[in-house]
Amino acid sequence: MAQFLEQIINGLVLGGIYALIAVGYTMVYGIIQLINFAHGEIFMLGAYIALMLITVFGIPFWVALPLSMVLCAMLGMLIDLVAYRPLRNAPRLSALITAIGMSLALQNLARMIWSARDRQFPTQLLPTIFQGQNAISLPGGGTLPYRDVCIILLALVLMIALNRLIYLTKIGKAMRACAQNPVAANLMGIKTNQVIAITFAIGSALGAVAGIMVGLSESVTPTMGYYKGVAAFAAAVLGGIGNVTGAMLGGIIIGVAEVFGAGYISSGYRLAIAYIIMIVVIVIRPSGLLGKSTGTRA
Amino acid sequence: MNDKLTPKNVILGLLVCFLPLLMYGIDAISLLLSRYDIYLDLPSGDYMLRIVVRAYLYMLLAIGLNIVCGFTGQLDLGYVGFYLIGGYTAGLLMARLGVTYWIALPLAVINGALWGLLRGAPTLRLTGDYFAIVTFGFAELLFRIVKNEEWLIGGPNGMVRDIPPPAVFGVVFNQNWHNYYHIILLLMLVVFITYRLQHSRVGRAWVAIREDEQAAESMGINVSRYKALAFTVSAAIGALGGGFIAQFQVNISAPFFEFWESIFILCMVVLGGMGSIRGAMIGAAILGSLGEILRPGFIIPYQFGNARYLIFGIILILLMRFRPGGLSLRKA
Description:
The complex is a heterodimer. Chain A contains eleven helices and two strands; from the N terminus they run ααααββααααααα. Chain A has helices at about 1-30, 40-55, 60-85, 90-115, 145-170, 170-180, 180-185, 190-215, 225-240, 245-265, 270-285, and strands at about 135, 145. The model of chain A is unreliable at about 295-298 (pLDDT under 50). Chain B is mainly α. Chain B contains 13 helices and two strands. Chain B has a two-stranded antiparallel sheet with strand order 1-2. In chain B, a hairpin with a 2-residue loop joins β1 (about 165-170) and β2. In chain B, α1 runs antiparallel to α2, α3 packs antiparallel against α4 and α11 packs parallel to α13 (about 305-320). The longest helix of chain B is centred in the N-terminal third of the chain and has 29 residues, at about 5-35. The two termini of chain B are about 20 Å apart. The mean pLDDT of chain B is about 85. Chains A and B meet through α4, α9 and α11 of A and α5, α11 and α13 of B.
């Protein structure tokens, strides 16, 4: 029972992280129909930036977190500007190949700069709440670290904020308009490129938070963007790509499924579970759980 | 692909035929010079020959991937999956069951083709990104399976050891120059088949599907059947490459077949210009040898690790931005 509870909590932590990354994939896909492979890399860089800010520059955690978000948002906009914007009218395959190239380049750049080894956030430099020994005891002998509670709450708050942003603000309205019909939105006086840049910025900032969360609960490696990114993408597909609420739901489902699969089936197949869910969803119901049915076309 | 007997082509042909001789000649010359205390410091001929064999292998794989990516215009991100199937089918048959290479290789190709068809069936109606994602997931799943199923593969990390070299009447083909002529024969076969397919009814149907699937359908082309055929042929070629590498490398393991290998091959096809056999071969020749030169420890210092992938990523981005048709002249 205690193990079951702990697994649920681990699944929710992972699910919250996946949801935050998946939102970045799904928002960009919703507007420009591009699988932004480089998003996973931004998420990885977010973790490294925060790590560097804390360890090298000695900046306190609660300052490093928003700083890393801002830097990643800028990076996301920069990638859009130099790599994707020139290809807006090119065949979609070209943009997809560019995204893969960008992912490959960034991942290996990170490997060159920080080497391939795992890095941990130094515990003594973190706020006490994130230090592992502070935990609530659960009935049945398990423990619930405050760190996990924090991660789940932070993910929840950010996602509610994003949801409000999309449905209640002017920029959110512009984003939804661009997702529906970019040409018509442009004719209505919406600066499409600006909206797309903001979308990249928001997705990247949330990705950075997710990266830091992974750094807190696991470790920071150059390949984390690739592995976690693919699972998060699977979450976006599961929820219905282009649908922000779906991405959150998909993230939680994939996270819990992965933890349970690793715990009860085989830890070697951790990631395979996300892939299997993704393939089954695409083949059976390409529009995902909450997406509108669009037939065979993506 | 012109059949003119021009001097350039003859020289090229002779060079391809006698390259091993040239390589060993260089070896002999540097050995001779070292007696007079002149050291050229060249890599050994055997080593260079191995690089050339790998480049030819990549040509074969690039031609196979080009059938799906170039001819029918679908982005296949999991081509390495068929390479893996071919490699493990041949490797396990030869190392575990003692099947001779000449039977194991066709079986590997058939197995690959079968999987190509199997993967093709559910993905026929998918287009664009969704197809790419399913192919990616397929290859990743296969990678996980060979990595984890020790009872099936034998060693940790999908290691299959001591795959015997092919032999005919007791003559064992385990030298690098054997492999050189071996891969050239396979490559010639593949080029011949693909070339004939490209310039037949089938090839024209593929291109029609690439340009406009609905228009092709309305012209009476059975889109599903021709797509399935493309997936099958492409997969068979990938498996052929896998069968070759199993005996060439002697030991194979899962990291040979990682996702980035797919992207590496895709990079070759894109560089050469999608939809052209010659382009795929040129792309493979450039990147195949470049990939070897940029391996850590050769020019790039070890601490930078796999910087070559950084370079490949930048190549992909720059190509798409400035030259989407690749090095060939066809506009994308």
